[in-house]
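REQUEST
  id: r-88c1
  op: predict_structure
  target: Ribosomal RNA small subunit methyltransferase H
  payload:
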Amino acid sequence: MEYHNPVLLKETVDGLDIKPDGVYVDVTFGGGGHSKEILKRLGPNGRLFGFDQDEDALANALDDERFTLINENFRFIKRFLRFHNVKSVDGILADLGVSSHQFDVAERGFSTRFDAELDMRMSQKNDLSAYGVVNEYDEANLRRVFYDYGELKNAPAIARVILEAREHEPIKNTEQLKAVLSRFLPAHKSNKILAQIYQAIRIEVNQEMDVLKEFLEQSLEILKPGGRLSVISYHSLEDRLVKRYIKNGMFEGEPERDFFGNFSVPFKTIGKLIVPDDAEIRINNRARSAKLRIAEKI
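RESPONSE
  id: r-88c1
  status: 200
  body:
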């Protein structure tokens, strides 16, 4: 089984505009597809650092003296690059979301296709799991999770039903969760709504929005002027943060204007939004929602 089929492989790596002697970071190493392509374009003095918090990804480490794999969350990119005596880099690649491997291993609990314990942790070192969110969060927090991260208008009703169900017994696995929420899953839309519910829980478990914000802010600090940022996102919440940060250097509001009325922004956008073509989607259905944005530090 393919560990992870890299999405927009050529376009994402092309976006980094790789210098043979440069220093690059692939913060979502996974199966190593993007990293292998970067290494092909690096010369003997180039360096590549990979980050992946998932212990399963360590088995894919590349045997190349130019490559270092760091088993940590990329929210700590600055700290761990400093540990390796790297203060600035020429390019950073991020392929956000869940890897094919994580979706396909039933016991990880990421997929609606399998009956599994409620887990959804991208790193098994995390204390909080999907079980904790579903069984221990109060009504207000459940409502927040489903509304903010699942964009579900009926989040209050979903939260109430979960609270009522767990009074009788804990909700331990995906089949129990589906049964509890069955009234919200009409046959013609059940997969879509379940995907939104799972997405909401997964984002909360892994603090994905906070992690993305911290990563983007640190990327700006460690990229050299002229350095490139190449980011693939898979849902509107992620893409909105990436788009706003690239455009304004902030997640909310507008940057201040200078005396002449011009914005002072840290990045310039390179090219237009890139999405997979029909041929790639046919080969890899998970690419269908991918959006690639490329920026250069000014």
